[in-house]
Write a structure and sequence with these properties.
Elements (H helix, E strand, L loop, with lengths): L1 H14 L2 H16 L5 H16 L3 H17 L3 H9 L3 H13 L5
Helix pairs in contact: 1-2, 2-3, 2-4, 3-4, 4-5, 4-6, 5-6
Length: 107
């Protein structure tokens, strides 16, 4: 649960491993976003998506983008949710979503 993810983040931070830190932060943000509708979670996920994209980590970028859209949908911010999924990298997100579904993973 949350405690294990926080411990993973602490260890990754101590090791100064940027990819592990990002992974732990993404997983914590996705956990926080499960039932969320607030701007705080949306902003966190968008920031993490940008960092993942900058590092070339498309899987984490896709996970953050999907989670962002989910929070926006729960907040009834439909146009923004659609934009999150159909933005400039929409084709890539759709491909990542399909690959994730084919592997049996849940967004």
């Amino acid at each position: 649960g949350r405690a294990r993810l926080q411990e993973a983040l602490r260890v990754a931070s101590d090791q100064k491993d940027e990819m592990l830190v990002l992974s732990a932060r993404v997983n914590l943000a996705r956990l926080d976003a499960r039932d969320a509708t607030s701007q705080t979670e949306i902003d966190e996920l968008k920031e993490l998506a940008e960092k993942a994209d900058a590092l070339g980590l498309k899987y984490y970028w896709a996970e953050c983008s999907i989670s962002t859209a989910s929070v926006l949908l729960r907040a009834k911010r439909y146009p923004e949710a659609e934009e999150a999924l159909d933005g400039p990298e929409g084709e890539e997100l759709e491909r990542a979503r399909k690959e994730t579904a084919e592997r049996g993973a849940k967004p």
